[in-house]
Q: What sequence folds into this?
């Protein structure tokens, strides 16, 4: 049965690299959203806990509930959190309307738009927001922004970073004037963290924990991808040169030989290779995935009982003109995970 | 919260269209594999049962166990089935080795290669297989083939169909000579079914049940897609012409207006739209999904509280140079389903 193997030592190595950018009293918070970027929410939560992580970020309440006993602080980025959810699960608030309706007992983090113009409250509405927070006696845990230029760096990143700092200053002032407790702040994702030193605030480490970074920072090369994907053989056929394989006979034997089918396909989240795909997609040891990939299997000229699809998805990401995140998050949550 | 809405009347309509090709005593078997092609295994199993379906096909034991009480016959296409699994769950066998090891109490279906050269026993090994079945007193439920040219039709399809019939004849002869009970046979998938009339054998209806078919058969136009995908607004921003949105500022406001983020992204299984993607990907009512799509949300120039991404995925399939199956099976199983 196909498996995603997780290298716990590589994960530890990545966390150590990240921690070097934080002040000695700070430890990173891990982003576990989208099934831990496809790596398995429960498996990665267990590893994170073993490595001393106390704060995590997940996609929504459903993910939060799966790991409710594992962390001190669990923030669900999207959607509402139910009244009866444990108190260590925090909701994210992006609008004034939500501030008017959220339960006063639910801890929450306020997202503020620092220029990415995607999610978050407009900074102009901060004063109004804190009036509501004070009036309704809401349980504000944190305030955060998300820099849309962490990977690219440059002027735009600096502009969003500066705006984040202004937001922080304004929040501190508002809390002081309204006699509210000071929330935590977090601005930096993986890329942002690597660009800084001695960071005092909590940082949200996502993709770097899993061994990747989509920026040109020299530290990227020191990160170690933690997941390798493996498929098992279903069966083999001895075929003659020219014999056809798969739907529409799109795969053709280049010589006499043995072709085998393996138990992963596009229904497991792989991109569907077909005869119009440019180039040859190769497995980790060079086996060519023949077009057309099926929903539950692919064929290749190999007799191996088990084949490694990748140990590092960057090659596949380049092949499909995308980023490692997409290859990883698309992996079916039903692929078995094993931590080594 | 984003939802996949399932139209139960459209599903019934598709089943009726399919049933017209079967002999009056036969009812279709439904393929529910890969989370019912992304539509939700449990939801579609419930609908299938309501429509009188008794035999289904799933990906593996894990899927089979989720619907173990819903059907008389559940065949798991891939992997082994545990000793203690209920007896209505059948394993598929593709090799002589598995015949040597499978438990005599486990019902199984034998897949035979009719020329697709993907999965299944070679027809040359049928005699040997039946010797093992007789000797080990194995519980053979069915024998099946899979035609690799169902969509394309033509000579190759006929050749694989003829080989399937030869396999059936040979199996009948072997059962007779070895005094084994006659198994069921199934050869036809959705495309194959639409090409025939008054089919006596069980047929494995997959994609057609969900409203699609990747062939040029005129009946394709009569099928009705059963799923529509909906996302809910996270928040809105009033922006000026030229202001940037999302990662790398890749989305740019074409005019003054309101941009909103919606709660589906490539981490939910959508293909990641970015600035190098050719063309504009549109939602069902024409809203342009701005590059770059995020992992958990996308942005578009709309203020709607809820937006329909698609009611028919064929447009998206063409856009991404793939087939409806891939768009559908990649939808995260965690997207909420609602049957209407």
A:
């Amino acid at each position: 049965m196909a498996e995603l193997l997780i290298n716990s030592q590589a994960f530890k190595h990545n966390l150590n690299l990240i921690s070097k950018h934080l002040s000695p009293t700070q430890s990173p918070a891990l982003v576990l959203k989208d099934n831990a970027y496809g790596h398995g929410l429960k498996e990665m939560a267990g590893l994170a806990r073993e490595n001393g992580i106390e704060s995590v970020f997940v996609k929504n309440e459903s993910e939060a509930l799966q790991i409710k006993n594992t962390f001190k602080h669990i923030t669900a980025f999207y959607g509402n959190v139910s009244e009866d959810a444990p108190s260590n699960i925090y909701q994210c608030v992006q609008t004034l309307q939500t501030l008017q309706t959220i339960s006063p007992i639910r801890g929450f983090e306020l997202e503020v738009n620092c220029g990415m113009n995607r999610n978050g409250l407009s900074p102009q509405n901060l004063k109004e927001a804190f009036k509501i927070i004070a009036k309704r006696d809401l349980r504000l845990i944190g305030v955060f922004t998300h820099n849309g230029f962490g990977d690219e760096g440059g002027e735009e990143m600096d502009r969003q970073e500066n705006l984040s700092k202004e937001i922080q200053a304004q929040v501190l002032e508002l809390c002081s004037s309204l006699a509210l407790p000071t929330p935590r702040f977090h601005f930096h994702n993986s890329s942002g963290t690597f660009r800084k030193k001695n960071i005092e605030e909590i940082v949200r480490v996502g993709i770097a924990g899993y061994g990747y970074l989509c920026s040109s920072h020299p530290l990227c090369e020191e990160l170690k991808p933690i997941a390798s994907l493996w498929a098992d053989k279903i069966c083999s056929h001895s075929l003659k040169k020219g014999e056809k394989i798969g739907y529409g006979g799109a795969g053709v034997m280049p010589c006499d030989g043995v072709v085998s089918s393996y138990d992963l396909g596009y229904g497991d989240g792989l991109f569907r290779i077909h005869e119009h795909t440019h180039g040859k997609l190769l497995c980790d040891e060079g086996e060519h995935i023949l077009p057309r990939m099926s929903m539950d299997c692919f064929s290749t000229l190999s007799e191996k009982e088990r084949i490694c699809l990748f140990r590092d998805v960057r090659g596949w990401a380049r092949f499909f003109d995308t980023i490692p995140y997409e290859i990883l998050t698309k992996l079916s949550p039903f692929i078995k995970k094993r931590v080594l």
